[in-house]
Amino acid sequence: MTILRRGAVTLAFLAAMVGTAIGVGAVGGDPIAEAAGGLLAADSTHLAPASSAFSIWSLIYLGLGAYTLWQWWDPRDERLIAAPAIASLLLNAAWILVIQAGWVWVSVPVIAVLLGVLALLFHRITVHPARSLLERVVVDGTFGLYLGWVSVATCANIAAALKGAGFLGFGVPEVLAVVVLAVVAALGIALTVAGRRPIAAPAAMVWGLAWIAVGRAADAPHSPVVAIAAVTAALVITIAAVTGWLRGRRAPDGAVR
Asked: How far apart are CA 95 and CA 105, in angstroms?
């Protein structure tokens, strides 16, 4: 079973890389920002991050590659993360293919399931602490970043799908965007508390929120209100994460992730 697990993770990672190549337009697909009528472009909705935000994927994919290599030296998968890791990689590839087909509404349940899978994985690495610093960085750090970014990306994805359906935010899209950002801030605090003071997940959320703020301050749809709300949410998550980390440093059983 061990060799099957390792092979399955490796094949799933390769599938994710093929999907990524399609998603960036390297093998015939359209870049995500241009696919599906541009609904996921940086200037599409009030919750769309500026284009530079997506550079975080380079770090996430680097971490996923490192995890794929690392798990070949992990004899038993005692933390039970291989299955959700495989699912997350395949769902990522599926999301890209769905967007390439222009099915933005279908992409919403796909990314929602991806978020749920990553939440399950996050729970498992929280319940079963890493056995080494290398594992903490390669596994906890990678999937923490993955979860944090997808948490923000899910909001942007839903906003894009609603726009594609002609929904105008009840005439007050800025107010609705601020409410969503408040929910993201609450989620960031919850991850910090439930995850034994993680660093990677809230860091990725702060990254995404910061680029939403940049987008609304410098690009259409221009909205100082949403920009301020995004910055506020990012600051709230940062304070929660730093406070938790400092407390963890003082606690005898504090495990920083």
From this structure: 11
